[in-house]
TrEMBL record:
Name of the encoding gene: hemL2
Cofactor(s) annotated in UniProt: pyridoxal 5'-phosphate
Enzyme Commission number(s): 5.4.3.8
Classification via NCBIfam families: PRK07046.1
Family: Belongs to the class-III pyridoxal-phosphate-dependent aminotransferase family.
Pfam (any one): Aminotran_3
GO-annotated molecular function: glutamate-1-semialdehyde 2,1-aminomutase activity; pyridoxal phosphate binding; transaminase activity
SUPFAM superfamilies, sorted: PLP-dependent transferases (SSF53383)
Domain of life: Bacteria
Protein known as: Glutamate-1-semialdehyde 2,1-aminomutase 2
Length: 458
């Protein structure tokens, strides 16, 4: 008789019972974090300095004492292998030595002056060399960079509309915090956004990822200033581009006079220079934040010579006054020092080779376990980033992710692994490898994953 594979879905009651046991285990092992959470509740909204810090399935927030390389230590003294890495901010590892040394040296020489530091010329040269675009501006965060780029794009094209993909993530940019009505395809307000008063859905179009027909139709009326896109969806599950998609999408943008803007804040791990450089794409504008300066708050946006000329024309033609672009801390001396060190020492073939080795081992280990246990789940990978997805194939768009959502199973995976010293990104099953991620770190994750599958009876 042929063996019948077990169901990939655990009994909901049993899953809830397992999660309850893991919550108790966490509370028992983290009395100091629990005490700090109680103290912070008196002064912080939801008990944390940023409410996103509660987006984890553990019953109280995990408070960190130190983080180095691919590991962190909590205030209760437990060590964790970190595959979250600050949701990409620490992609090159926590506190990489060249950046830490540069920050310490610059801190003694001044933090911010609203004037360019001596390093500015060197940084500009390194940005052009590493990422392939000739002109650059800095911002404090990728959210700021995206805001500034959209303002520039509308100014130089004299077009009102922006186009994004359903399921995209571009930080706290209001223009992108809209949704697509699956029934009509219309852009609608995102109900979760607080305090919204402007009609951003009237000036932003949303289409499914990987849909070239929808892209062509959205651009056809000549009203779209820019397509702002991640090379792959990374915050709605990991959804890679279909073969040939970006080459065709780039051609459509050019045909319709729409700027192609690639936000690589989450896809820098695709290869040296990011996804665009690795895959020979030619965006009009390009954005990176989080990891670009080794985790120090900093973002950059680059653009072609043609776009730079149009930007100068738009700025010179505008009346004197605040352009709405830039902040006083933008391009501060501390950020420039960190960025220079990161460009010289971190954005290198050696760093990416180390990341790829760890990712190869992790991907192979996860796939071997899924095959051995006959689980119809998928590991989707993009460079050093990958995701365990509870579906039989790699998703093509955000609707695929919605249809296969397994929130309870994801929460169980996160808390179970956390209780065994492995930290994942707090949403989906996302894992990122840094140059400091070693064989022992991968082995620890895989051992905890085996234990979780055993606990599920899979």
């Amino acid at each position: 008789m042929r063996d019948i594979p077990p169901s990939p879905w655990p009994d909901p009651t049993a899953l809830a019972a397992l999660q309850a046991r893991e919550r108790e285990r966490f509370l028992a092992a983290h009395p100091t974090s629990r005490a700090l959470a109680e103290r912070c509740a008196a002064h912080y909204l939801y008990g944390v300095p940023l409410h996103w810090m509660r987006d984890w399935p553990n019953p109280v927030t995990l408070f960190v004492r130190a983080a180095h390389g691919a590991a962190l230590t909590c205030v209760d003294g437990h060590a964790y292998v970190d595959f979250c890495l600050g949701d990409t901010g620490a992609m090159f590892g926590h506190s990489p030595a060249p950046v830490a040394q540069a920050v310490a040296a610059q801190a003694a020489q001044g933090l911010t002056c609203m004037l360019p530091a001596e390093a500015a010329a060197r940084v500009g040269e390194r940005l052009a060399q590493r990422f392939g675009l000739p002109y650059w501006q800095l911002a404090m965060t990728a959210s700021d960079a995206n805001r500034f780029v959209l303002r520039w794009a509308r100014a130089i094209t004299d077009r009102p509309q922006v186009l994004v993909f359903d399921g995209c993530y571009h930080g706290a940019v209001d223009d992108t915090l809209v949704d697509r009505d699956p029934a009509t395809g219309a852009t609608v307000r995102r109900r979760s956004v607080l305090g919204g008063v402007h009609d951003h859905h009237a000036f932003t179009r949303v289409i499914p990822f990987n849909d070239l027909d929808a892209l062509d139709a959205a651009l056809a009326d000549g009203q779209v200033a820019a397509l702002l896109a991640e090379p792959a969806l990374t915050n709605f599950g990991l959804v890679p581009p279909a073969p040939g998609f970006w080459e065709a999408a780039q051609a459509l943008c050019r045909r319709h006079g729409t700027l192609l803007v690639l936000d690589e804040t989450h896809t820098l791990s695709s290869g040296v220079g990011g996804y665009a450089r690795t895959h020979a794409l030619s965006p009009d504008m390009w954005i990176a934040g989080k990891a670009v300066a080794g985790g120090v708050p900093c973002a950059v946006y680059g653009f072609t010579a043609e776009v730079a000329a149009r930007m100068r024309n738009a700025k010179d033609a505008a009346p004197e006054g605040h352009s709405g672009i830039g902040t006083t801390l933008t391009a501060n001396a501390l950020a420039l020092a960190a960025l220079e060190a990161a460009l010289e020492h971190l954005h290198t073939p050696a760093s990416y080779a180390a990341m790829a080795r760890a990712a190869d081992a992790l991907e192979a280990g996860l796939n071997a376990r899924l095959h051995h246990r006959q689980l119809p789940w998928t590991v989707t990978r993009l460079g050093a980033r990958m995701e365990l997805q509870f579906m039989p194939r790699t998703p093509r768009n955000a609707d695929d992710v919605r249809q296969h959502a397994q929130a309870a199973l994801e929460a169980s995976l996160h808390l179970f692994l956390l209780n065994r010293g492995v930290l994942l990104t707090p949403f989906h099953g996302m894992m990122l490898c840094s140059p400091a991620t070693g064989d022992d770190h991968v082995a620890r994750l895989l051992a905890a994953f085996d234990e979780w599958l055993d606990a599920l009876g899979r």
